[in-house]
């Protein structure tokens, strides 16, 4: 049975931890607000660029453009976007499970032949999949300290170069999409080749645009910008989702610490009361023994 001193030390330790979790929640909340503003500003531009590209590709032959033409899949690259740090609940572990399940369900035979290559964006994912023997094509760690568009450009360019060289024939991205402070949506998106708009898609309204210069020239110019910005949007989504997950995790940790402190204080009071009662009984017993002796 723990002594009063042991319980008191544990209460002090939990209170110290609670101070840390409260501070981390406040920091995460401040970072999340900035990250949320950034992603809300980026989404309309990314959505409109993707829409414009779909309209353009609906009337052209995808085979004429290397980033649009589907290939026979001999190798696949998966960009795994995780956090650089922990203490954000199930944020990272959900990505690990999703990537593992996705490979098992869709690329099991290809993975056995070494045809699944992972591009890691985030330290936690790099550590996890490296230890488990996956083929790591590239690592990008520490990217969220001063996250900027140049980082997204470097990752996108690396992916495009590998695709152009034939290192892989398809690229997918797995990341947490920001929904709100308490929720993230696990998302798997195809990055390359780009998915063109179906010509007879029921929801696609045919619009006869006049292009200057030609539509082909616009596509050649638009595709690199689209890929860079989509990668930037993914990193922003993941960053905002990470801060929201950390804020929620630290709030839960603070609440659990408060509940644990209450239980420990109750145990401390019970133990203290038992010790006082024991001392009183010893005093009374001693007095009674002296009275009988006299």
Describe what you observe in this structure.
By secondary structure, the chain is α/β, with parallel strands linked by helices. It folds into two domains: 4-20 and 251-293, Helix Hairpins (Orthogonal Bundle); 31-247, 3-Layer(aba) Sandwich (Pyruvate Kinase, Chain: A, domain 1), CATH 3.40.1380. The protein is 61% helix and 13% strand. The protein is built from six helices and five strands; from the N terminus they run αβααβαβαββα. It has helices at residues 4-57, 91-106, 108-112, 123-131, 149-165, 215-293, and strands at 76-81, 116-121, 135-140, 170-180, 183-192. A five-stranded mixed beta sheet has the order 3-2-1-4-5, sandwiched between helices. Strand 4 (170-180) and strand 5 (183-192) form a beta hairpin. Helix 1 runs antiparallel to helix 6 (215-293). The chain is elongated. It starts with a helix and ends with a helix. Mean pLDDT is 89; it is low at 199-203.
CATH-assigned homologous superfamily of the largest domain:
ATP synthase, F1 complex, gamma subunit
Terminal CA distance: 38 Å
Return the structural class. alpha/beta
Task: Enumerate how many helices there are, as a single number.
Answer: 6
Largest sheet: 5 strands, mixed
Would you count the extended β strands for me? 5
CATH architecture of the largest domain: 3-Layer(aba) Sandwich
Stretches where pLDDT is under 50 for at least 5 consecutive residues are 199-203
Order of helices and strands: HEHHEHEHEEH
DSSP helix fraction: 55-70%
Mean pLDDT across every amino acid position: 89
The total tally of domains equals 2
Rg of Cα set: 29 Å
């Amino acid at each position: 049975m723990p002594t009063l001193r042991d319980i008191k030390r544990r209460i002090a330790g939990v209170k110290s931890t609670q101070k840390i979790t409260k501070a981390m929640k406040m920091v995460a909340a401040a970072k999340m607000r900035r990250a949320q503003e950034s992603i809300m500003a980026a989404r309309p531009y990314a959505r409109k660029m993707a829409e414009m590209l779909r309209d353009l590709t609906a009337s052209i032959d995808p085979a004429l453009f290397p980033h649009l033409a589907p290939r026979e899949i001999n190798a696949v690259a998966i960009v795994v976007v995780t956090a650089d740090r922990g203490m954000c609940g199930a944020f990272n572990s959900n990505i690990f499970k999703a990537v593992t399940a996705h490979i098992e369900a869709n690329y099991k035979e290809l993975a056995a032949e070494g045809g699944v290559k992972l591009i890691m964006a985030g330290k936690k994912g790099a550590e996890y999949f490296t230890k488990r023997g996956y083929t790591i094509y590239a690592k990008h760690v520490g990217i969220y300290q001063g996250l900027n568009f140049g980082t997204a450009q470097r990752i996108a360019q690396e992916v495009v170069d590998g695709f152009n060289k034939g290192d892989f024939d398809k690229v997918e991205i797995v990341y947490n999409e920001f929904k709100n402070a308490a929720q993230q949506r696990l998302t798997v998106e195809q990055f390359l080749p780009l998915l063109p708009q179906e010509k007879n898609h029921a929801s696609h309204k045919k619009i006869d645009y006049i292009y200057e210069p030609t539509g082909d020239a616009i596509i050649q110019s638009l595709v690199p910008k689209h890929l860079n910005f989509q990668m930037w949007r993914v990193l922003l989504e993941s960053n905002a989702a990470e801060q929201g997950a950390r804020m929620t995790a630290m709030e839960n940790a603070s609440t659990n610490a408060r509940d644990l402190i209450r239980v420990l204080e109750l145990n401390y009071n019970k133990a203290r009361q038992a010790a006082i009662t024991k001392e009183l009984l010893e005093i009374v017993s001693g007095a009674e023994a002296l009275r009988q002796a006299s």
